[in-house]
Design brief:
This protein has a domain at 46-158. It has helices spanning 2-21, 83-87, and strands spanning 46-52, 56-61, 68-70, 99-101, 108-112, 118-122, 125-126, 148-151, 157-158. By secondary structure, it is α+β, with helices and mostly antiparallel strands. A 3-stranded mixed sheet has the order 2-1-4, with no helix packed on it. A 3-stranded antiparallel sheet has the order 3-8-9, with no helix packed on it. It contains 2 helices and 9 strands, in the order αβββαββββββ. It comes from Kribbella pittospori. InterPro entries: Lipoprotein_repeat. Residues 1-22 form the signal peptide.
């Protein structure tokens, strides 16, 4: 008899647990409900403008890091692949519409890379970060190799040569 009481107790607890997991009471039919909660909208990458030293107002990513264009790219196509990407990571487009602060939206687009990923572009040219820029406001990649340029707030590359940045391209 004692064993039968334990079995009935376990079954009762199991049934109570199943009942609690079933109907949430919101369904008019009394059956299981199918709730649809909308996921938050996917955020796109963020671009803004900031004053960066003698370069003036430039485009930066959401973390305040300076963005660059590469002279070997052409409008709509990135030519920075392989080892180049280790020093010049792309500014990924993200899953939603880019968030722009102080930048003309008509300047910003996306480029599909050879691996199928999406990269942000300004003025049709893919944009990158420089791995040696370790904090917001750094622009150590300016004029590296004579082919990497900071992007001004107007979407145009800034070709001012720094006095010395000690970097040698990619």
């Amino acid at each position: 008899m004692k064993r039968m009481g334990i079995v009935i107790g376990v079954l009762a607890l199991g049934l109570a647990g199943l009942t609690a997991c079933g109907d949430d009471g919101d369904s008019a039919s009394g059956g299981t409900s199918s709730s649809s909660s909308s996921a938050p909208a996917a955020a796109g990458a963020k671009l803004a403008t900031a004053d960066v030293g003698s370069l003036g107002k430039v485009i930066v990513d959401g973390n305040g890091r300076t963005v660059y264009v590469f002279d070997k790219d052409v409008s709509g196509k990135s030519n920075c692949e392989g080892d180049c990407l280790a020093k010049w990571p792309v500014v990924a487009a993200g899953d939603g519409t880019p968030q722009l602060d102080g930048i003309d939206a008509s300047l910003v687009s996306t480029v599909t890379r050879s691996d199928g990923s999406k990269q942000l572009a300004v003025g049709g040219l893919p944009i990158y970060l420089f791995a040696s820029d370790t904090k917001a406001g750094d622009a150590k990649g300016q004029a590296v190799g004579g082919v990497w340029w900071v992007v001004g707030a107007d979407g145009k590359k800034i070709t001012t040569q720094p006095s010395s940045n000690g970097n040698s391209g990619y």
